[in-house]
Design a protein that fits this description.
This protein is α/β, with parallel strands linked by helices. It contains 23 helices and 14 strands.
């Protein structure tokens, strides 16, 4: 039972029976501890509908509520807000059902596929990938907690001209270097050669320009780009030595990626490779042409006209019959629905690709796939540094591994300064440093609404004060210490005590856990969970500071407060887990 939901349901019924207003859901807000009343109902939306002043409406609704339910202690109206004081017994009823409510998940008969990460095999993962991975993984966790079955997937971009650039540079400058000989992760080694290619490419462009060739022509005529284009043709034709080099360097990258994923704490149920999917969709496009959905130009290229939908014409197959990204994305989507019993597919991709997904979804609808309306682009804002955008080919990125190591080192330094882990074993200390450091990074990224662009300031990201994961994790550790000192493992939730405002406020917030998960699942926003758990922790700290627990003289009050603490710890742990963040018992 949730008090807030109970009030909302009763208000909806009253509006229907007394004012003939259907499906009106007024906002019900929890009051802070220094406000009069426990909940506030915002009644301004009714003013125009019923042509009555806010004060009159508030008084009428308050009286109707008191007459129809038994849990209203009192009410008062303040400038269009109806404040309700709730009887003690309703809070105790919510307390008694909290543990079951929080732990129970109602299964939804729907399977959702969530795609995230989808890196290129010519460079290591960077800060942009960190946001993508953490966001996609957290959304998958939240959907599971909301009752959905979830398939986590990624498609690795392992072919194309950008991959050939790294391969060609290694051929020219590598001298047989391997991750083992270089003592370097494979993805970093390959990424270094991608940067080397760009350096040589730029120098060749400059040389051609000095000979009087314009920049656009120089970019096309530079010897190294012509070699890379030839290598791509050789790959597509299956030339053995090119394929062997491609396979060897990709294996280096996959091993490096796996290390990064493992430390980041993300995983996948399925993995697809662009080298397998890039030919998908060609037959579908040709079929669409025969059905008159697409059209062909004189050069034999195939296009779709989306001008009626407010977009433009989009190339689907080149004149020589080769695919473009849109072709393979059409084919990959169709294959995913064929091979998996899924009802929704979510693409976690930055907002730079908004147009691409608009077009993709429209094409699939035109082709007649009924599930096309169940495709969703989880569009998120780019991550920028104080000095601007990151550029992989220039090596101006925040490396994911370096970032995670920096967070670990910062957590270690902070813990050693405080000296609170001195009596733990080395393995316990290491676990604490890792959990706290990476928790700080994940929370810093996930507490921001996905739609918003992020400015990543490394200095602020390692600040362990305020609205941060370490602040939340510390409260969890404090509760574990309290419960350990009490020596109690089981509690009787059948209590009959008078609750104060701190206890009521905390109970109100804890009762919202399932509603928060549901809302986060509907909006695909982990930020809702992050900000919820922060509010819970602030409320618990107020409760903790203003209420004696272990030394309270009444055993029933002591036991209630211990159990309330235990439930709070459960909500903190579960909420952080949805964000991919762990907890520790000592900090």
């Amino acid at each position: 039972m949730n008090i807030k939901t109970e009030i909302q349901n009763n208000i909806t019924k009253l509006l229907q029976s007394n004012y003939q207003l259907e499906n009106i859901n007024l906002e019900v807000q929890e009051n802070k501890t220094d406000f009069q009343g426990d909940f506030t109902i915002v009644i301004f939306p009714l003013v125009k509908m019923l042509k009555k002043s806010p004060d009159v409406l508030g008084q009428e609704l308050g009286e109707l509520l008191v007459a129809s339910v038994d849990y209203i202690e009192s009410f008062h109206v303040v400038k269009g807000f109806l404040n309700l004081s709730i009887k003690n017994h309703l809070f105790l009823e919510q307390f008694q059902s909290l543990t079951n409510t929080i732990e129970k998940t109602e299964k939804i008969n729907k399977t959702v596929m969530v795609e995230y990460c989808s890196p290129n095999t010519n460079k290591p993962l960077h800060l942009g990938h960190v946001r993508n991975n953490l966001l996609g993984f957290s959304v998958a966790n939240i959907l599971k907690e909301a009752g959905y079955s979830v398939i986590k997937t990624q498609i690795i971009n392992d072919r194309g001209i950008h991959i050939c650039k790294s391969m060609l540079a290694w051929q020219k400058f590598g001298n047989g270097e391997t991750p083992q000989s270089a003592k370097l992760k494979g993805d970093k080694l390959v990424g270094n050669y991608y940067v080397e290619f760009d350096k040589l490419y730029k120098s060749q462009i400059a040389e051609l320009k000095s000979q009087g060739i314009d920049e656009e022509s120089a970019k096309k005529q530079a010897p190294i780009i012509l070699e890379a284009q030839q290598m791509l043709l050789d790959w597509e034709q299956g030339k053995p030595e090119v394929r062997q080099l491609w396979q060897m360097m990709n294996e280096w990258v996959y091993a490096g990626f796996q290390e990064t994923f493992q430390r980041m704490g993300v995983d996948f149920d399925q993995v697809q490779y662009e080298s397998d999917t890039y030919i998908l969709g060609k037959d579908i496009i040709l079929e669409g042409l025969s059905r008159g959905i697409f059209y062909q130009k004189e050069d034999q290229s195939i296009w779709v006209d989306l001008s009626d939908e407010g977009l433009d014409q989009k190339l689907l197959l080149r004149g020589d019959g080769t695919s473009v990204y849109m072709t393979q994305d059409v084919g990959t989507a169709i294959e995913r629905f064929k091979k998996n019993n899924i009802q929704q597919l979510i693409y976690t991709v930055g907002n730079e690709q908004d147009y691409h997904f608009q077009v993709l979804f429209l094409i699939l609808k035109k082709l007649g796939y009924v599930w096309a309306s169940d495709l969703h682009h989880l569009s998120y804002g780019m991550v920028e540094l104080p000095e601007g955008k990151m550029k992989s080919r220039e090596g101006t990125v925040v490396d994911a591994d370096d970032l995670m190591q920096e967070m670990y080192e910062t957590a270690k330094q902070k813990a050693q300064e405080l000296g609170k882990l001195d009596n733990l074993s080395n393995s316990e200390k290491e676990n604490s440093y890792e959990t706290v450091g990476l928790g700080a990074l994940k929370y810093f990224i996930l507490k921001v609404d996905p739609k918003k662009k992020m400015l990543f300031d490394p200095k602020k990201s390692v600040d362990f004060e305020g609205n941060t994961a370490p602040f939340i994790q510390y409260t969890y550790a404090r509760i574990q210490s309290l419960l350990n000192k009490s020596g109690q493992e089981k509690f009787d939730n059948q209590v009959s005590i008078d609750l104060n405002t701190y206890e009521k406020h905390l109970l109100m917030l804890l009762g919202n856990y399932k509603e928060v998960v549901k809302k986060a699942a509907e909006t695909l926003s982990p930020a809702i969970v992050a900000n919820f758990v922060y509010e819970v922790v602030k409320s618990y700290n107020s409760f903790y500071q203003n209420n004696p627990i272990l030394n309270h003289e009444q055993s029933e009050v002591k036991e209630f407060r211990l159990q309330l603490s235990q439930i709070t710890a459960t909500v903190i742990r579960k909420s952080l887990s949805l964000l991919g963040i762990g907890t520790v018992n000592r900090m």
